[in-house]
Design goal:
A hairpin with a 5-residue loop joins β8 and β9. It is built from five helices and eleven strands. The chain is globular and about 55 Å long. The chain is of the alpha+beta class. It is 22% helix and 35% strand. It has two domains: 101 residues, 2-Layer Sandwich (Alpha-Beta Plaits); 102 residues.
């Protein structure tokens, strides 16, 4: 059975499309584009489409993968053309691969934009104590814990923007055991009085980082199964 990997960008107002809504959107687009997708078996079949690296709500992305199991092969360029003809504004297929090798992503390169000057952002990082709260589990119960994100920004680089303000580029860990969400970084800066005006996950990286937190894989069919739909 063949597998198709699509690489897509998610920009503009599309950044407010949730992970589950994006999965539904792609399932509908695959059907409209007549991509020969394989369906799960059972009482309520679903298309075999999965997103292994969910994006936080409000985060844009330049190159994200979606995996599709096929019933028959399709030319990658044909898949790109068909999908882009039916996807809504803000979503764009930028590349496609047929039967690609597995992805072993360990980090992502992110860019944050601020209205503040580079000196302020550099100062906040240097001072440490950039914290935000995230949900976690303890003894089977959901709790909130405070995370200091400053260690993950040790190698971050800032640069002034022509329009004013600045951008910060950093590499964040993204593995099944260790993940730092861009949303956590944005929350920490906001808590320190430097709100992020734009957040972009520009690239997924292989074999780059080993730091802190946790990553999950969610497929379209799994999401529906969990909800009993």
């Amino acid at each position: 059975m063949d597998n198709l990997r699509l690489w897509f960008s998610k920009t503009g107002l599309a950044r407010y499309t949730s992970h589950l809504d994006a999965a539904r959107l792609f399932a509908r687009a695959v059907r409209q584009a007549r991509i020969p997708v394989w369906y799960t078996e059972g009482f309520n079949p679903h298309p075999a489409i999965s997103f292994d690296y969910p994006l936080p709500l409000g985060t844009e992305a330049m190159r994200e993968p979606v995996e599709i199991r096929l019933t028959e092969p399709i030319a990658p360029e044909d898949a790109v053309s068909r999908m882009n003809s039916v996807l809504p504004e803000g979503f764009l297929i930028v590349d496609a691969e047929l039967d690609p090798p597995g992805l072993e992503i360990s980090a992502c390169r992110c860019v944050f934009e601020f209205g503040a000057a580079p000196q302020k952002i550099d100062g906040l990082i240097a001072a440490g104590g950039l914290t935000a709260e995230k949900s976690a589990k303890s003894h089977g119960k959901k709790i909130m814990k405070t995370v200091d994100v400053a260690p993950f920004l040790a190698d971050a680089k800032t640069a002034a923007l022509p329009s004013g303000g600045c951008r910060l580029e950093c590499v964040l860990p993204l593995t099944p055991q260790n993940t730092v969400s861009p949303a956590l970084i944005a929350d920490a800066f906001s808590n320190a009085g430097a709100p992020v005006s734009r957040c972009v996950r520009e690239e997924l990286l292989r074999g780059q980082s080993e730091q802190n937190e946790s990553h999950s894989t969610v497929s379209f069919s799994e999401s529906y199964a969990e909800r009993g739909e």
